[in-house]
Amino acid sequence: MPLDDATHRYTLPGATGEWEIVIGLEVHAQVQSHAKLFSGASTEFGAAPNTHVSLVDAAMPGMLPVINQRCVEQAVKTGLGLNAQINRFSRFDRKNYFYPDLPQGYQISQFQFPIVGEGEIVCERDDGSRFTVGIERLHLEQDAGKSIHDLDPNATYVDLNRSGVALMEIVSKPHVRSPQEAAAYVRTLRTIVRYLDTCGGDMEKGQMRADVNVSVCRPGQYEKFRETGDFKHLGTRCEIKNVNSLRFIMQAIEYEARRQIDIIEEGGKIDQETRLFDANTGVTRAMRSKEEAHDYRYFPDPDLLPLELEESFIENIRVNLPELPEAKRKRFVEVLGLSEYDASVLTADKDRADYFEAVIAGADAKLSANWVNNELFGRLNKEGLGITESPVSPQQLAKLVSLITSNVISGKIAKDVFEIVWAEGGDPEQIVEARGMKQVTDTGAIEKVVDELIAANPEQAEKVKVKPQTLGWFVGQAMKATGGKANPQAVNEILRKKLGI
């Protein structure tokens, strides 16, 4: 499974030569809305079974769906965030199939006329390089309920709380070429919808899940597909349903690609089918065959009029879009002077970016980035906390950074102050004042310490004159002698002057 650094071409070795993977993803993102797509029932997570079910959700006779305008706005907002075409005309269709947790016997979805058309997003690989994934479409649909099989050995229970919850199905083009790129794509998508506040993106709560389409082909075939648009250059794809974590997405792709390669190299052929990923065993298994594809018998839902959006409706959403992660990352680099790495880390999550922006409202941007990315995130990771759970507020960290830049305390003392604020809270300025932690900037006092060190260590002093790079020993001793309070820059300058280097 080497990755060619020059081309980012991910290949898998087989008995008869190398293979490449082609991946497309259908991501189901739950719309951030208090009510369901066609009813007023709550979408709150974690309620007792069958407590958030309206008569519409339960498919009681004579109940008519009514479109939730908020969900339409959220879909348009997401489409704009994906640089996609917003379709002024879209339509809801009935997708007919029978399943215990689908009380209507059909799902209201969009088929021929989705609300959002083609777009694209820029994603970042682990090495910092970027790649673009085309978006085929985004359509609105209602979720099904949940079948529960482990409460009774002889019965299946059905919870309809999710029935009717609004989903955005975001369909990518087959532009993803490795398990790592697939994870990066979903991660980027999740970041965008969180910035937009159109989806919570919590995969553990079912707010995002992915259907992953995987096929394999020989090197060179994918390029022919991109040139011609002809799928005959690609292998037969299999769809892995409802994968709910980035790690599982990568594992499922890796296993499925190797499974297909083994079958082809042994003279078999790939059946187009739907498969499930077993997270316990790390394997995919057949769910149903696509060769006998379900005839969903799509037809326009007779209870719902087509959606016809005014241009002013779309434009009003467009002008109120928040700054998106890619634009924010670019601003952090070009305006604030941050490194590409620091900017990418800070913008990868909306809460992180918001925290950082609150810090730099009162402190130097570059030094703040170092403290947020290194000290704060390092401590949060160690404690297993998220940025919203940080015991140190942005305002406290901003004061701490300002104390460093104004030479009131050194970086070393700042770490001690940080630990106090983390454990006890309090105002950094008051802590420094009350505990006598201010930096020593009195050159006379520093000179006295340096003179005593040189007098006590003549051999080391001679060594430094021959090898100036060993000056660090004296700096360390001076800082130790002053309890870390001496200004390091002043210590360096005085030592160099005294030792003539």
Topology readout:
Elements: E1 3-4, E2 9-14, E3 17-30, H1 69-81, E4 89-90, E5 93-96, E6 106-109, E7 119-124, E8 130-142, E9 146-148, E10 157-159, E11 166-172, H2 179-196, E12 208-217, H3 221-228, E13 238-243, H4 246-265, E14 273-278, E15 283-289, E16 299-300, E17 307-308, H5 311-319, H6 325-334, H7 340-347, H8 350-360, H9 365-383, H10 394-405, H11 411-424, H12 428-434, H13 443-456, H14 458-466, H15 471-481, H16 488-499
Parallel strand pairs: 13-14
Antiparallel strand pairs: 1-2, 2-3, 3-11, 3-12, 4-17, 5-6, 5-16, 7-8, 8-11, 9-10, 12-13, 14-15
Helix pairs in contact: 2-4, 6-7, 7-9, 8-10, 9-10, 10-11, 13-15, 13-16, 15-16
Average pLDDT figure: 93
Residues in β-strands, percent:
15-25%
Shape: elongated
What class do helices, strands and sheet pairing give? Answer: alpha+beta
Specify Rg, calculated over alpha carbons: 30 Å
What's the helix count? 16
Low-confidence stretches: 1-6
Kindly report how far apart the N and C termini lie: 54 Å
- Give the total of beta strands: 17
Amount of helix: 25-40%
Largest sheet: 10 strands, mixed
Can you walk through the features of this model?
The chain has 501 residues and is α+β, with helices and mostly antiparallel strands. The protein contains 16 helices and 17 strands. The strands form four sheets. Strands 1, 2, 3, 7, 8, 11, 12, 13, 14 and 15 form a ten-stranded mixed β-sheet that branches. It has a three-stranded antiparallel β-sheet with strand order 6-5-16, with no helix packed on it. Helix 7 (340-347) packs across helix 9 (365-383). The relative contact order is 0.09. The model is unreliable at 1-6 (pLDDT under 50).
